[in-house]
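Hi, here's the filled form for the chain we discussed.

Project: internal
Contact: R.S.
Residues: 415
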Amino acid sequence: MAKVKPFRGVRPPKELVTQVASRPYDVLNSEEARKESEGNEKSLYHIIKPEIDFEPGTDEHDPRVYDKAVENFKAFQQKGWLVQDDKEHYYIYAQTMNGRTQYGIVLAANVEDYMTGKIKKHELTRRDKEEDRMKHVRINNANIEPVFFAFPDNKVLDEVIKTVTKEKPEYDFVAEDGFGHHFWVISDEKMIKEITEEFAKIPYLYIADGHHRTAAAALVGNEKAKANPNHTGNEEYNYFLAVAFPASHLKIIDYNRVVKDLNGLTPSQFLDKVREHFDVEEKGTEIYAPAKLHNFSLYLDGKWYSLTAKAGTYNDNDPIGVLDVTISSDLILRDILGIQDLRSDKRIDFVGGIRGLGELKRRVDSGEMKMALALYPVSMKQLMDIADSGNIMPPKTTWFEPKLRSGLVIHKLDD
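And the returned structure, exactly as it came back:
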């Protein structure tokens, strides 16, 4: 059963939240962070991307950069830009995109639940990426940024969310990307107890986004437990910062592919090979989006095509085999184009659906890429089925939007 707890959040005063809050560390590069934080000494980028305080080109893994993160985190607290709550709270964090709002509960998730598989993952993590975030958690002794979880829908927690969000939010702003962010503090003791007890009835939590951050946070907590001879399991380092959303609130958007060449084939030879496993229909020059599961959109030589996988080319009873990313990776990228490893092959690139299918057209029309493939998005049910079966999603399968804003609340590992 999921073990969660409230915590004494470290967060900006209401009037500073828009200056402090930032995008997550991994969705932009150092130069973009430098530009976004220009003239804003209160930006969280000074803590999560502190290389911006050094000469351009400074390696973000330079030991001085990690030290700067600590220095800046302390300074933010001393100057009152980040202030710790007096008592433990849960929080509600809602995000609005394109008129649709999703509501999550901000909580401290349990390290042991991650180590024992009660917090389920659907992606492989890379050790070098884990190590970078572990250093950041370790040296700041805090989870500066939250991870993004899903949980099976729960009526009691739905009621809690409805009740809390009737009140005026503590923070309420629209970020520069047009997404709305709304944040409430839960102070009612009875409600806090109810949330803890209700999560204890939920067998599993699911990582939606932030596998590396989750692994890093849990591994640092585990290190601290092993290093403490008086460890009890109740220390604050046994927990890490997460925002957990009911699964029905979340919408995964498409994650598409662009490829540099046709592996020596002409466009007509390539289409002939595609026809062996797909019904191919030319759609003309207007952008065509995949209409349903097992339907794909191909852009090649200035034209869009609908590709529908033929019966027998996939296995609906296999949680991985049923995925469109598996079908396209096996039957098009591997078998026709010779792309064996999506993680390392330099001939392929990936485009998040937030950029729209026009971005696929642009990259092919520019001559940078030869063809583009758009996929129908994975469902939350598919993601949870895969995690439940102990399987791992193929690379670059899910894209969650909007991303969690960083800097709304921070969790310290020593309380």
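Let me know if anything looks off before we file it.
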